Backbone:
């Protein structure tokens, strides 16, 4: 599964590797990788692979799941499609409560004590998805864990998830993507080390000046 999803994401540039011309994140950090998993929604074959893989993760890792909750906004469509496959109810969690109407942060019916799996498209440092988990816990839900499409595997994210006592299972990760990218000519074999060095410490930009 990991390799298939990595191949899929690379094939549609949902994960795009450019170590020779780094992208700049909003934080100012230079990155050799750009992720836009929303592109999976416009690629039917890839979308099918992703949603069936997410459903398989929920079946195998969270068999007691009663509700799927997508992260707003990128996880909403994936939660809806996966919930349809599994015949489960779904909803989504806003980044904050609405300032009008009923002031909801959680959209969709959620009862205290229900077992929930969060559907997320991308995990980097883990901050935003942990806010979703905390909102669901505050509402009385039992969060079984997260099913995500891709993770950078950054240590900060791993540590945050562990501190929040929340499990994450990703369909693929940066290590798998880098291996597949090198095998299929998306990057040069020598670029693998640069990208993994970035993953290990995004604030250290010495990989940019590494030998080409």
Residues:
């Amino acid at each position: 599964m990991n390799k298939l999803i990595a191949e899929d994401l690379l094939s549609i540039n949902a994960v795009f590797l450019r170590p020779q011309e780094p992208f700049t994140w909003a934080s100012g950090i230079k990155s050799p990788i750009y992720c836009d998993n929303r592109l999976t929604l416009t690629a039917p074959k890839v979308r099918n692979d992703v949603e069936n893989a997410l459903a398989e993760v929920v079946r195998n890792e969270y068999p007691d799941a009663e509700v799927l909750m997508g992260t707003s906004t990128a996880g909403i469509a994936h939660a809806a499609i996966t919930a349809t496959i599994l015949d489960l109810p779904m909803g989504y969690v806003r980044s904050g409560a609405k300032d009008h109407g009923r002031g909801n942060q959680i959209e969709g019916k959620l009862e205290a004590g229900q077992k929930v799996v969060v559907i997320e498209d991308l995990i980097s440092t883990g901050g935003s998805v942990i806010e979703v988990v905390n909102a669901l816990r505050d509402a009385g839900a039992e969060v079984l864990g997260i099913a995500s499409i891709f993770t950078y595997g950054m240590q900060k994210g791993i540590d945050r998830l562990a501190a929040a006592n929340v499990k994450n299972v990703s369909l693929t990760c940066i290590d798998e993507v880098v291996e597949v990218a090198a095998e299929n000519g998306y990057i040069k074999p020598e670029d693998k080390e640069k990208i993994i060095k970035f993953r290990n410490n995004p604030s250290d930009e010495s990989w940019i000046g590494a030998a080409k």
